[in-house]
Amino acid sequence: MSLAPRAVLVHRRTEYEELLARHGTHGQAAFLLSRRGRSIDEVVHRHERTRQALREVAAAVPLTWRSSSVERADLDRFPFAPEDVVVVVGQDGLVANTAKYLRGQPVVGIDTDPGRNPGVLVRHRCADTPALLRAAIAAGGRAEELTMVEAVADDTQRLLALNEIYLGSPGHQTARYRLGGDGDQGPEEAQASSGVLVGTGTGATGWLRSLWLERGSSAGLPSPCERRLLWFVREAWPSPATGTTRVAGELGQGQGLRLTVESDRIVVFGDGMEGDALELTWGQSVRLGIAGTSLRLVT
User: 290 vs 151, 185, 293, 298, CA distance in Å?
Assistant: First the structure.
């Protein structure tokens, strides 16, 4: 007998909850904010709006379904299952934070603060939840397959990301490595830089776009569903031992960018989740390319 679908509600702590965790009481948090010229009322209002959205979404889950919830800080320990429908209730970035832990499960994005969030990935309102849940499990339901990027290390460690993967020094100092692509003629280029960024079409609305603009790149930014990545080396340093000839490029299906570590330690993390990173040491290598897994975003 097949299992009933399970709705997994993904959320994160609100600013108000973080203030209470840091300062202990509402009064103390309000006092400290007032000394900085801010009122806690706005923060409390956003908190209440988010909690109300979570209640509405939870109430929309069909009675025949199972349900669960997970906070962002616990995503790396949550056991997602193949029959899950993942409902992200929050901001666009929360969808990206969740994507790396999924393997094809449909994702519904619910915007808790319309007008404040861009709504690139959380495109829907709470009232849309019942219809979206039906669409998520319906045969032929409408969904976009958003391209993801992956990093695979020589020790089989693997990392997925929806927006971008960054490789660099954990202390934001100079990273030293050798860089080359699949099938490149000649040896890899030794480089010293602030790190390497490899991004997708979804990431083209954020960090990747800023680097693209800074470089005045002639390469077109990929669209979210396009099977193409762009990569940039940040602040490559020319010296007698390090070069700057390979500082940008694009990757298509089946193509990869290879990096061999020549520092004590390099970290590899995706979508800003520094707490869940791969750590590579001297001599290790990692390959970056288009992931075999996509994010299935219900539209």
Answer: 9, 22, 9, 21
User: C-alpha angle 164/168/174, rounded to 5°?
Assistant: 145
**Res. 172: pLDDT tops 80:** no
Strands 84-90 and 106-111: parallel
Residue by residue, DSSP assigns the chain as: -PPPPEEEEEE---HHHHHHHHHSSHHHHHHHHHHTT--HHHHHHHHHHHHHHHHHHHHTS-TTSEEEEEEGGGGGG----TTEEEEEEE-HHHHHHHHTT-SS-EEEEEESSBTTB--SS--B-GGGHHHHHHHHHSTT--EEEE--EEEEETTS-EEEESSEEEEE-TTSS-EEEEEEETT-SSPPEEEEESEEEEE-TTGGGTHHHHHHHHHT--SPPPPTTSS-EEEEEES----SS---S--EEEE-TT-EEEEEE-SSEEEEEETT-TTS-EEEETT-EEEEEE-S--EEEE-
Spatial distance between the Cα atoms of 219 and 203, rounded to a whole number of angstroms: 15
Closest to 187 in 3D by CA, of 179, 195, 196, 176: 179
Mean pLDDT to the nearest integer, 2-17: 93
Confidence check: pLDDT of 184 > 90: no
69 confidence band (pLDDT: 50, 70, 90): very high
The whole-model pTM stands at 0.90
Q: Is residue 119's pLDDT more than 80?
A: yes
